[in-house]
């Protein structure tokens, strides 16, 4: 794809994203959750794709963001938007602190041990917050209501989540082009060799998890305001849904790439909404079958499949005439070698 075509596609996509709430006014909430899914997939791929550490506990940071913002809005006495801004800032700090505290412990493990270790984070957090009366316990907590019409509320949180998704994408694109991105890939390819060459792998692993945690914490506040209710198991620490979907979306699109998680999130969210609309009652069965199809038929993701079957889209073209000439030359050389033998 030429650079001019890429620019045109980017401009068209940006224009469609900005006009989305007005083009599809009845789907604003679903579209807002689409940008949340993009953010989920991008942040999971920092560890799971770029670094090779499959985490099932990233939902912890999102849940902390939901609760931190809701509590600030409830107790601070600030105006709505000031409380939202302060809550999102506290959410990012809480997520960063949790990642900094847990990172050195969990990231000392590798492979399936790390995956299993992170699996219990969301479950433990859900049980902890479900028994904590200060945050509503199992009854949940209601954040402050948006001071405006419902339609305006939907558009506000749509654009806020869109901005966070774009900020995540731009930040990660920059990081992957720096020494930090090269260090993550070195850890994924051969961590022992990277350590023997003097790379402080633990420092990079913890930093990568903290970056993911910061964006997940920031996203928790807008989602709490959009939904209007924070439940410890169904929203904040929903490991069986959000926690699993993060992994699936990155794998579907192509983990270890920048655009793969974005494509996977769009395809997965659109398919899921289709199931919930037209297969009500069977939606979870269909979603389970989708998971199986992703793992079996798209182990390298959509981008990996496209790269193998449409290499010209990625600038990987082969001149058929040169290939044919090369094959004819090889055949002639083999025949000549057979006569001399």
Describe the protein's architecture and organization.
There is one protein chain. With 341 residues, the protein is mainly alpha-helical. The chain has one domain (17-262): ABC transporter involved in vitamin B12 uptake, BtuC. The chain is built from 14 helices and no strands. Helix 4 packs antiparallel against helix 8. The longest helix is centred in the N-terminal third of the chain and has 27 residues, at 80-106. The protein is globular.
- How many strands, what sense, and barrel or not for the largest sheet? none
- How many structurally independent domains? 1
CATH class: Mainly Alpha
Helicity, as a percent range? over 70%
- Dominant shape: globular
How many DSSP H or I helices?
14
Distance between the termini: 48 Å
Secondary-structure-based class equals: mainly alpha
CATH architecture: Orthogonal Bundle
CATH topology-level name: ABC transporter involved in vitamin B12 uptake, BtuC
Element order, helices and strands?
HHHHHHHHHHHHHH
What percentage of the residues does DSSP assign to strands (E)? under 5%
Low-confidence stretches: 320-329, 336-341
What are the defining features of this structure?
341 residues; mainly alpha; ABC transporter involved in vitamin B12 uptake, BtuC
Briefly say what this structure is.
The protein is mainly α.
List the helices and strands and how they pair.
Blueprint: H1 3-23, H2 28-48, H3 59-75, H4 80-106, H5 111-130, H6 150-176, H7 179-196, H8 201-227, H9 232-236, H10 239-253, H11 259-278, H12 283-297, H13 301-309, H14 320-340
């Amino acid at each position: 794809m030429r650079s001019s075509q890429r620019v045109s596609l980017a401009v068209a996509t940006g224009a469609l994203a900005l006009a989305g709430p007005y083009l599809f006014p009845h789907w604003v909430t679903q579209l807002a959750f689409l940008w949340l899914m993009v953010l989920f997939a991008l942040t999971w791929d920092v560890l799971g794709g770029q670094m090779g550490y499959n985490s099932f506990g990233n939902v912890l940071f999102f849940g902390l963001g939901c609760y931190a913002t809701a509590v600030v809005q409830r107790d601070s006495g600030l105006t709505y938007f000031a409380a939202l801004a302060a809550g999102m800032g506290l959410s990012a700090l809480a997520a960063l602190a949790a990642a900094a505290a847990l990172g050195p412990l969990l990231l000392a493990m590798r492979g399936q041990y790390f995956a299993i270790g992170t699996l219990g984070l969301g479950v433990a957090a859900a049980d902890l917050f479900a028994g904590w009366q200060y945050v509503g316990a199992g009854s949940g907590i209601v954040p402050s209501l948006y001071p405006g019409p419902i339609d305006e509320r939907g558009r506000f949180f749509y654009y806020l989540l869109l901005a966070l998704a774009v900020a995540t994408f731009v930040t990660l694109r920059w990081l992957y082009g720096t020494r930090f991105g090269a260090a993550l890939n070195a850890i994924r390819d051969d961590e022992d060799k990277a350590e023997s060459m003097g790379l402080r792998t633990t420092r990079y692993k913890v930093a990568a998890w903290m970056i993911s945690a910061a964006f997940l914490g920031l996203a928790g506040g807008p989602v709490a305001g959009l939904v209007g209710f924070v439940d410890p198991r169904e929203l904040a620490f929903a490991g069986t849904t959000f926690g699993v979907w993060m992994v699936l979306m990155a794998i579907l699109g192509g983990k270890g790439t920048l655009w793969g998680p974005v494509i996977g999130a769009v395809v997965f969210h659109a398919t899921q909404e289709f199931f919930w609309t037209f297969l009500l009652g069977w939606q979870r069965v269909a979603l389970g079958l989708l998971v199986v199809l992703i793992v079996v038929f798209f182990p390298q993701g959509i981008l990996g499949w496209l790269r193998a079957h449409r290499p010209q889209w990625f600038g990987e073209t082969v001149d058929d005439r040169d290939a044919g000439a090369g094959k004819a030359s090889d055949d002639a050389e083999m025949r000549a070698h057979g006569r001399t033998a």
